[in-house]
Structures are given as C-alpha cells and as structure tokens.
Amino acid sequence: MQYVCPTVLNLQKTDNIREFNKVPMFMKTAPEDIDPLKHPELAAIQSIIHDDDRPLGEQAQSLKDEGNEYFKERNYKKAIVSYTAGLQKKCSDCNVNAVLHTNRAAAHFHLGNMRSALNDAVAAKKFKPDHLKALIRGATCCLELKKYTDALQWCEEGLKLQPTDKKLLELRAAADKHKRVAERDARKAKVQEKKERSEREALLAAIKERGVKLRMPPPRPKRQSESEDGGYEGASKALAGLDLDGLCSTEATGARVFLGEQGIIYWPVLFLYPEHQQTDFISAFSESSSFLDHLSHMFGEELPPWDTDRKYSFKNLQVFFEDEERESLHQVNPETTLLKTLQHKRYFVKAGTPSFIILVKGSPFCKKFFSERKTYLL
Amino acid sequence: MLSDVTAEELMSFLNLDTRPDIKGQATEYILGLSGNRDGCRFLQTKPDLIKALVTLTTDPSIAIVKDCYHTLINLSADETMHRLLVKNPDFLPMLFKNILDPGYMFADRICTILTNLSRHMKTCKEVFKAMQEQGISLAQIVEIFCTEDYNKQASLHYLGPLLSNLTQLPETRQFILDKDRCVVQRLLPYTQYEASTIRRGGVIGTLRNCCFDHVHHEWLLGEAVDILPFLLLPLAGPEELSEEENEGLPVDLQYLPEDKKREEDPDIRKMLIETLILLTATKVGRQILKTKNVYAIMREFHNWEKEPHVVAACEKLIQALIGDEPEPGMENLLEVEIPNDVEVKLKDMEAKELEQLEKDKEDLLNPDKAQHCAGIVRMM
Predict the structure, then answer these.
(1) B362 in any annotated domain
(2) Fewer beta carbons under 10 A from the terminal one: N or C of chain A?
(3) Is there a contact between A177 and B223 if contact means CB atoms under 8 Å apart?
(4) Local mean pLDDT, 10-residue blocks, chain B (380 residues)
(5) Which family does it belong to (chain A) (predicted)?
(6) 0.80 cut: is pTM over it?
(7) Which residue of A149, A184, A192 is the best one to mutate when testing the B interface, meaning the one whose CB has the most B CBs within 10 A?
(8) Which tens digits make up the pLDDT trace of A231-262?
(9) Is A195 in the B-facing interface, judged by CB distances under 8 Å?
(10) Domain total for chain B?
(11) Contacts of A151 in chain B (CB under 8 A)
(12) Cβ of A191 and B251 within 8 Å?
C-alpha cells in the first residue's frame, strides 16, 4: 500500500483535538484495529512494519518494539501477538529472541497465565542463559506456581550472575520461606493423620473387643473380598474414607461412631418407622444407654407430626432389628442397652450406623409386617 | 636416619626425568618418612624437597602424584613445616591453580592441605593472600562448595573446614555476612548434611566464628537469614512435644517426625550449642531465642545427651535462656517446668562459679581466643 500524505488540517474547525488524533504522529493511543479506510496513514505505517523485505533481525526488533508499546498501554494480549510475530521471524539474533520470550513471559504473567509465562522464561534462557530478566521472571513464575524448589534454582542461577540483585535476593528469601512452611504443613498433616489413625485403630479394637460385628458395603472391584475378621479391615478403610456415610443420602450427616470419655463408644443410630416411612437419626447414642432412655424422650410429651393416629407413645413402642441376610426380624427389649443389642449374634452393623425398626405394639401394620418375614419375638 | 649420601641420591630421584619405577619407589619412601615425626624432622632439612614435590605433582603417573600430595598433606599437618612450605613461591599458587578445576582429581587433597595450613593465624593470612593473588575469590570457593557434584572426582568436603579456618580473618567473616549478598544463607542447609561430618563440622565452625561479631546477630536471627532453625535442627530429637509447644517453635522445628535423629558427633553438638550461647550475648538475641521456645528443644536435648562436656555446654545455654533478667513479662519463665536434675545442678552453682561463667563468656567472645579451627589431617 502506498504511503499517503497526512490530511491538511483546517485549523478553523472546532474539533481540533479530534483532528489531531487522526494523525498518526499525534495519536495518544493506537486504535484497537486499524481500519485502512478510517486510518489510512496508520495502516500504511503498519504495513511497513509487517510486509517487508528487511532483514529478519530488524523485523523482529520492530515487532518487539511494537509489543513493548502495547505492553506499556497494558494491552497484554496485543503485546503477546506482536512478540509472537517477532519470534516467528526466527531470526538468528539470540538476544532479540531472548528478549521477545522474556517480554512475552511478562505479558503472560500479567494476564495470569503462569505456565505460559514460565515456558517463555525457559525458552528465553535457552537463547541466552545469562539473561537476568528471564531468570528473574522464571523465579517469579515458579513462586506463583508454588514450585518453591524450582524457584530457588532460578534464583541461584541469577545470583551467580548478579550476586547483589535485590529482586533475586528477595525472591530467594520468599521462596525459601514458603518452602519451609509447606514442609512444616506436610509434617503437621502427617502427625494429624497418625493421630487419627491410632484413634481409629483404638476404636476398632474397642468395637472388636465388645464382639460387635461390622458389615461393610459390597467390596469395590479392585479391593480384596471381605475379610474374615468380621469386616474390621474393610472397616478401617471405610472409617478412613467416607464410606461410613454410605447410607441413604439424606442421612449423610458426617456423624461417625467414636470412642468417648471413659472408654464409652457412641454410635450414630437410625430409628426407622416403616409404617409412616419416617426415620429419626440419633447422632451419638451411648452404648450404655438403653432404647427406652431415648424413646421416652422422643415419644414422651410430644408425639411427632407424622404420627397421625397419635399412637406412637413410648409405652406402646416395640423395637426390632433386621437380619438382612436371613430376612428375619428380631425383637429387642427397649430396656436393654445398645451395647447388649449390638452384641446379638445376628446383629451386624451396616455402614457404621446401627438401625432399628420401631413399631406400635399390636397395630395392624405391625401384624402385616410380621407376616412378611420370619419374626423372633421375645 | 639416612646418611647424607643416600639422602642426596634419594632427592636426585625426585624429578620428572627419572625412570618411573625408581621415581615411584622414591616418592613412596618419602611418603613413609613424612608419616612420622622423625621423618618429618629429617625432611625439614631438605629445602629442595618441597620444590621437587611441587614439580612432581605434574607427573603423568597418577600413583606418583598421589604420593606427592599425601606427602604434602603430612608435611602440612606439622606446624613447624608451614614456614618452609609457604616460603616456596610455587607451592601455594600450584594448589590454587587446580582447586577450581572441576576435572582435577586431586582437588580433595588440595583442600586438605589448605585446611591444615590455615589452622594458625599466621599461615592462614598467607594462604588468604596467595588465594587473592591467584585471582580466586571467596565467592568462587563458596560457589564450588555449594554446587553439588561440581567435581565428579572430588567431594570438596574439606572446603568446609577451610572456610571455617579462613573465618579467623575479618575479611572472610565480612564476606560471609554480607547483607547485600546471599552467602551465609547458602551455607545454612549444610548443618544437616548427613553424608559428611567434615563438611558439616566445617560449616558449623564457620557459623560459630561468624557469630563472634555481635553486630550481625539481629540480622542473622531475622528473616533474611534465619540462622536459628539450622542451629537447632541437629539438636532436636523425635520426642513429641505438645501442640502448644510446637506452635511456639520456628517453623522448621515444628512437628518433627518420630525418626528424627540428632547430630551424632559430640564435638559438633558442642559447637552448635556454643554458637547458640554466642547468640545470647545480646539482649535482642536472648529475647528472640526465648520467644522462639529454644528452651523446649534444649530441655529435651539435656535429657538425651550423655557426653559430659556437651551437657555442660547445654546447661550454660539453658542458664542463659532462663537466667534472671528482671524484665516485665518474663516472670512467666519461673513457671517453666525445669526438670529436677537441672534445677539441682543450677542451684548448686555458687555465686563464685557464676562469676567464672561470666568471665568465660567474655573469653569466648574475644575473637583472638578460642576460635575454632579445623583439626590437622594426616595421611598414611
């Protein structure tokens, strides 16, 4: 495209400033896109830069300068475009290439593209291993990416070249500090984990000691088949993970069995009311409490709203547990403790949460319920 | 000893042109002589010997060069030989010429010789001067010391004690403690370098000597350097501390694993404690050490330590940490639980002994006295 003479200004026009702004030399900022029709002069200048036969090194330099201009205006995206174009010239000048990469790294950094920034810093280093700005940029990126050991490496290299560089000394101190804090955090986590593991083991030992049997959810394909020892191995894994909350999703309260003061185990317990399709969840049922202790509170003065027939008074209630394997129902005396009940030879704690069925004595539902399964009454 | 004639003959064999087998036997014999006192005395009377040995370090036979270096090591171990060695104009330059060469297989021997030579102040100064004349800077020495596998055939561990010896000179301390550079910070991690007691001891000796200068204490204990954890980690053990005690410690000392081992060399342990004692010389230093719960670490250490001279140093430190400073807010230290045996020992110290302690402290702080120097090394 031909170079065109600038428009002659008519100084009598009122919007002088706007006119000035149209002349490339007086432009304060470059327009986003240069429309050759609106800004023929700018387009012409740009074409000088871009479609030319100058040596590659020179072209790369110009593109670098262009990128720098955009960078100054904080137009990082455009800066990256220019720098990339400069790099694509693949000129043989290592210095220019190193600077292009370093500057592009800076632009990426300001856009928050840490990985791209780091890649550019690495590339810059390849072109010119003693390019201090590239080393500083590399260190800064690594610090942001929390790669503290790498950051220290970059700093060390930089300080070899410039032992008194303030920025490098600062970065090194920061990377070192963060690294040591991260190491402390890892150690602390390990200590916590160990503590939790030994608490879990104590809990499992206590459960086993009482002769309470655990049944875990079906094993996942990768794991081994259920262990012989009443599911304790699986239980340990389950207690470690979140398998214990593998109940109905509504009850995923995060409550777990735990060993409390004086060596008493507290269980999360479900009371099921199949007649009304309702459940109650007791988050910490002491093994030394009885069902009556809880039922007398829950069904004492106030009866639940779903009890439309007003018959669920604790005196009328019967407690049962289900033996899933044999599809049978066992009655439990409400005055017995939870512990005693769990020790029943056919009781298996499923998914870490003992559950019990509550029915109203002699009710029609109750009779129907019994008829559907083998029932062991007291 | 050898007769003069035989001695003459022996010396004549020590040159590059001699038949290799005879040359080899001669150097071997000289090495044997250098290994004992009388032999050394004898060799001292042969001024041309040093010259011959220096020349023979360029011999093509590795065995011969090795013997030469080992002989020089033995000679340098004898203080009375230092004058003679250093007087030879080619000796020190030859050593420094090769030390920076990453491919030089005898670099470790050079470091050992230099360590021996730098033990005492006078020759130390000459060594330093020669180093500078050869255009070698402390920066370069520290650089190669801290670069892993700089020399594939030499560990360069003896640069540690060399540095330690060189810190007798204020110029060295000044360089290491330069606030505008990163020198001392690079040495700190080596206080726990398991692979070499020499390197570890050398670095700790260096740090100890640097701590004689009170003016740097606040900077050393501050964030820019943070020397404290590196001094405490080798003294800290696997004993579990309460969460509260842990949170009060420097970050690097928190939640140490149960397989944490303490420094196994008692002399190094003592050096570490001495360095800590030096840091309690200023009020600021004492303050910082107290706030960072150094007492907890030393309490556990005291329970564990068996060597009496280390225990004594430990008690000195504890005394400085819980000493009677009538400062507001410090009264709570009286509530610190002091184990019974320590309490008894402390009570037993009479005022007279306390006075002696103060005097000792002053001596310790006097740079001309009791500077740590690396030990003498001998080779057979």
Answers:
(1) no
(2) C
(3) yes
(4) 74 85 89 87 83 90 93 92 90 92 95 95 94 94 94 95 96 95 95 96 96 93 95 95 92 93 96 96 92 95 96 95 64 50 60 56 47 48
(5) Belongs to the TTC4 family.
(6) no
(7) A184
(8) 565 555 555 443 343 333 334 557 889 998 89
(9) no
(10) 1
(11) none
(12) no
Q: Which of A169, A180, A191 sits opposite B251 (nearest CB)?
A: A180
With CB atoms and an 8 Å threshold, state whether B143 touches A169.
Answer: no
Min CA distance, A104 vs chain B (Å)? Answer: 29
**A187 closest CB neighbour out of B181, B182, B255:** B255
Residue B167 placed within a domain: no
Whether B291 and B249 have beta carbons less than 8 Å apart is answered as no
Cβ(B142)–Cβ(B163) below 8 Å: yes
Q: Three-state SS string across chain A, please?
A: CCCCCCCCCCCCCCCHHHHHHHCHHHCCCCCCCCCCCCCHHHHHHHHHHHCCCCCHHHHHHHHHHHHHHHHHCCCHHHHHHHHHHHHHCCCCCHHHHHHHHHHHHHHHHHHCCHHHHHHHHHHHHHHCCCCHHHHHHHHHHHHHCCCHHHHHHHHHHHHHHCCCCHHHHHHHHHHHHHHHHHHHHHHHHHHHHHHHHHHHHHHHHHHHHCCCEEECCCCCCCCCCCCCCCCHHHHHHHHHCCHHHCCCHHHCCCCCCEECHHHCEEEEEEEEECCCCEEEEEEEEECCCEHHHHHHHHCCCCCCCCCCCCCCCHHHEEEEEEECCCCEEEEECCCCEHHHHHCCCCCEEECCCCEEEEEECCCHHHHHHHHCCEEECC
**B72, B33 contact by CB (below 8 A):** no
Domain ranges, residue B235: 226-335
Would an 8 Å CB–CB cutoff place B244 in contact with chain A? no
In chain A, residues 108-167 whose CB comes closer than 8 Å to chain B: 159-160, 163-164
The answer, for A182 touching chain B at a CB cutoff of 8 Å, is no
In a domain, B84, yes or no: no
In one letter, which amino acid is B140?
Answer: Q
